[in-house]
Specification:
The structure holds 2 protein chains of 2 kinds. Chain A is built from 20 helices and 16 strands. Chain A is an alpha+beta fold. Chain A folds into 2 domains: 181 residues, Periplasmic binding protein-like II (D-Maltodextrin-Binding Protein, domain 2, 3-Layer(aba) Sandwich); 208 residues, Periplasmic binding protein-like II (D-Maltodextrin-Binding Protein, domain 2, 3-Layer(aba) Sandwich). In chain A, the strands form 6 sheets. A 5-stranded mixed β-sheet of chain A has the order 2-1-3-15-6, with helices on both faces. In chain A, a hairpin with a 5-residue loop joins strand 8 and strand 9. Chain B is mainly alpha-helical. Chain B has one domain: Orthogonal Bundle (MetI-like fold). In chain B, 69% of the residues lie in helices and 1% in strands. Chain B contains 14 helices and 2 strands, in the order ααββαααααααααααα. Chain B has a two-stranded antiparallel ribbon. In chain B, helix 4 runs antiparallel to helix 11 and helix 11 packs antiparallel against helix 14. Chain B is globular. The chains are: A alpha+beta, B mainly alpha. At the A-B interface, helix 3, helix 11, helix 19 and helix 20 of A face helix 3 and helix 6 of B.
């Protein structure tokens, strides 16, 4: 008996194990079947591959509207993929197109429409509209939203969120300096005077706090009534008197405090200097007045709900252009070679509000985004958002302006954008070149690029 | 069985006939070839084909998605005759190579000499100096952006203790390239380990003989250590120059070529031309000019090595 025990035990163990395995397998099969049946709320759908570059808090918004779109669909299902801009989103897109396997739709914000549009990488979205729809689009869409997405008469990108800039300010700091926050300056000259009263220095005379620091040349050239683009002649402009005035204003502003001193002050505010995240120096009070985009409204609500602030348009100089400035935006493109063009177009219409402004109004309210037309702006959900965030009204007001311009739509737009920044850097940040010299250098660089492209046979 | 009979029975004639030697060689070669076939396949597809393609593409206008269009020597002509950014990027890269490579060698050799001593805990010191070289370049770059921050960075904070107002480092045209050169010393531990291995290879009897002759530490270093280390220095010099000409990641992450193109390295400009401005043909021409330059410099160093590299013969 004792000798038989191990054999019997072994047999019993074997049976138990066999049963456990069987039960386990059966449960797994049943669970899988159950899962399968619960997710099969729709008939088999065509997949739309959607690439975007949003991360962190913005990705949450994307996932939310993708989910809502999918819930509304029996025909298509959007599969979203976040590829951070710094992770080579553009490169991945180009390789996808070259390899014949691009996404069906991509959300972008880079200076790519003229470059990619001129190379035939993008589906002209106006070709997906009826003549009546196209006419309606042109009639109702805000000017800047049209300019961002259009190249040589064709629409390549539908803007889902316009970017506009305005002055954020701390009313408390203004009051402390004896300024009235209820009457924000109406002219750039007055704003400059206010800023001087708001600056603070330490015992050694170093800046510890700035009233205001004007930057972004492409903003100021339009504000001064100039600009880099002659839309009628379809040509670039550089060292025009108004552009020189604009760059001179920015340069003199920095010169007054010392180029090195301003550079030292701004470098200490963040590692990259761009402060695109929640390390925005305005939140900590390093600036009393900060020129920044509408997305800060959401960031302030999320990370600094107790900060009291207001927003006003950047005032034009006395002889300038009212509500002039620079605009960019987030837009949707469909690459050539996309497998689900119609599905992608349906998704774009859903997100942008071309299909239902109420839906897009709600999406804009989640992301704190500026809509592309009045239909979306007047939607119920968006109006509710504006009631909760009155500061945002300033941006809605600005976005109507016909005086907001993007970077000129030339096929080498990204290069131009980079060199405009270098031009501003040379004159304004470092004082290496006079404003006129810096603009002339920019002109030389662009002329050389045009010549180079001609020599290589690019069709311009 | 006598000796002769035994010898005959063990002769090869009693064993199965051996296949001819040539066939054995062929079979061995075949087996060898099969073993290296995966590598050869990978090399042909991933290296040789792109290499040949890039030569051809350098004579075309090619934007990745459209078909390449033959433009002859136009890319090379534009680069060499009409592109100041190309010349500036070349200048920046050569300047970096001229300073960073010798500096890296001197620091690496110096550290190796120090860490070659027989003191307590030497392996810990070696580990400490080697560790930075295995930190990924992206992490190093981000950390250095903080270290070199003009307002709150470690370097300027230390300088401030001595009453020195540090510059804006990466943000200052005069200092940005020097900042990257200074940062390159962070990864010197990699070459230091090779120098250390080289030092261990120097025969002790050479030092003993020199000591008998009355040579002090300095003379032993100059007349034994450094000459015997020259093969390793030669290797690190070649590798250092190749790496310097391919310098990219740190500039891409930390400065994007700025300020005012002061850190617009050759490889960074090449990358931007290829992927930001979609001038792949132009970028391929740049790559082949770079290849030719590195090849010429390497050949020149190889030619010179007989006069300064000692192999202990």
């Amino acid at each position: 008996m004792v000798n038989n025990m191990p054999a019997a035990l072994h047999e019993i163990t074997k049976r138990i194990m066999a049963n456990v395995v069987l039960i386990g397998l059966a449960s797994a099969v049943l669970t899988l079947a159950a899962c399968g049946s619960s997710s099969q709320r729709h008939p088999p759908r065509k997949q739309i591959r959607f690439w975007h570059m949003w991360t962190a808090e913005w990705k949450v918004v994307i996932d939310r509207y993708v989910k809502n779109f999918n819930n509304s669909q029996d025909e298509y299902e959007v599969v979203a993929l976040s590829i951070p801009a710094s992770g080579g989103a553009n490169t991945k897109f180009l390789l996808g197109v070259a390899g014949g396997d691009p996404p069906d739709v991509m959300a972008q914000w880079n200076q790519i429409i003229p470059a990619w549009g001129s190379k035939g990488l993008l589906v002209p979205l106006d070709s997906l509209m009826t003549a009546e729809e196209w006419k309606q689009y042109q009639k109702t869409t805000y000017p800047i939203a049209q300019k961002i997405g259009t190249f040589r008469g064709h629409l390549y990108g539908v803007t889902t969120g316009v970017n506009a800039w305005a002055c954020y300010y701390h009313p408390r700091q203004l009051r402390e300096a004896g300024l009235d926050p209820d009457h924000f300056p109406n002219t750039l000259e007055q704003l400059t005077q206010w800023a001087e009263r708001l600056n603070r220095f330490d015992k050694q005379g170093h800046l510890t706090h700035m009233g205001f620091l004007p930057t972004t040349l492409q903003m100021f050239v339009n504000l001064y009534g100039g600009g880099f683009w002659d839309a009628q002649e379809q040509q670039l402009l550089f060292a025009t008197p108004k552009n020189v005035d604009a760059l001179d204003y920015l340069t003199q502003y920095h010169r007054k405090y010392g180029f090195d001193e301003v550079l030292r002050f701004t470098s200490g505010l963040s590692t990259t200097g761009s402060s695109s995240g929640t390390d925005w120096p305005f939140i900590s009070g390093a600036f009393s007045i900060a020129l920044d985009g509408q997305w800060r409204v959401k960031q302030l609500a999320d990370v600094a709900p107790d900060v009291e602030y207001r927003v006003a348009p950047l005032p034009a100089p006395a002889a300038g252009r009212e509500k002039g400035g620079y605009g960019s935006g987030n837009f949707m493109i469909i690459p050539k070679g996309a497998k689900q063009v119609q599905g992608a177009w349906k998704f774009i219409r859903y997100v942008s509000g071309l299909q239902d402004p109420e839906v897009a109004g709600e999406i804009c309210s989640w992301g704190g985004w500026l809509p592309l037309n009045d239909y979306v702006a007047n939607s119920k959900k968006f109006q509710e958002y504006l009631a909760k965030n009155p500061a945002f009204r300033t941006f809605v007001d600005i976005v109507h302006s016909p005086n907001i311009e993007p970077i000129p739509p030339v096929p080498f737009q990204d290069y131009l954008y980079t060199r405009i920044a270098a031009c501003e850097d040379a004159a304004v940040v470092r004082g290496m070149l006079s404003p006129k010299q810096a603009l002339e250098r920019l002109e030389d660089e662009m002329n050389r690029e045009i010549k180079r492209r001609k020599a290589l046979g690019y069709e311009e | 069985m006598d000796v002769l009979t035994r010898a005959e029975s063990q002769s090869p004639r009693n064993y199965p006939i051996q296949p001819p030697r040539r066939s054995l060689r062929f079979r061995q070669a075949l087996i060898g070839f099969v073993f290296v076939l995966p590598w050869i396949t990978g090399f042909c597809i991933l290296t040789l084909f792109p290499l040949i393609a890039s030569i051809l593409l350098s004579f075309t206008r090619y934007d990745i998605v459209s078909k390449p269009v033959w433009v002859g020597l136009a890319n090379y002509r534009e680069l060499l005759l009409s592109d100041p950014v190309f010349w500036n990027s070349l200048k920046v890269t050569i300047k970096y190579a001229l300073v960073a490579v010798p500096l890296g060698i001197m620091t690496g050799v110096g550290l190796a000499l120090l860490l070659n001593s027989n003191i307590r805990g030497i392996s810990i010191y070696r580990t400490i100096f080697y560790l930075p070289s295995i930190v990924p370049v992206v992490a190093t770059s981000v950390v250095f952006m903080w270290i070199l921050n003009p307002q709150i960075g470690l370097v300027n904070t230390i300088l401030k203790q001595f009453g020195i107002q540090g510059p804006a480092w990466l943000g200052d045209v005069r200092w940005s390239l020097w900042s990257l050169i200074f940062m390159s010393l962070w990864g010197v531990g990699g070459s230091m380990i090779i120098y250390l291995a080289g030092l261990k290879d120097i025969p002790l009897e050479l030092y003993e003989a020199a000591m008998v002759d009355g040579a002090g530490l300095w003379r032993r270093t100059i007349h034994i250590t450094l000459p015997m280390l020259t093969p390793v220095i030669f290797f690190n010099l070649i590798m250092g120059i190749i790496h310097a000409f391919q310098y990219f990641a740190q500039a891409f992450i930390m400065t994007q070529g700025g300020p005012q193109d002061s850190t617009n390295f050759y490889a960074l400009y090449l990358f931007n031309r290829a992927w930001s401005y979609l001038d792949m043909g132009y970028a391929c021409a740049m790559a082949w000019i770079l290849f030719a330059m590195v090849m010429v410099i390497t050949l020149l160093i190889f030619r010179s090595h007989t006069s300064w590299v000692h192999y202990g013969e």
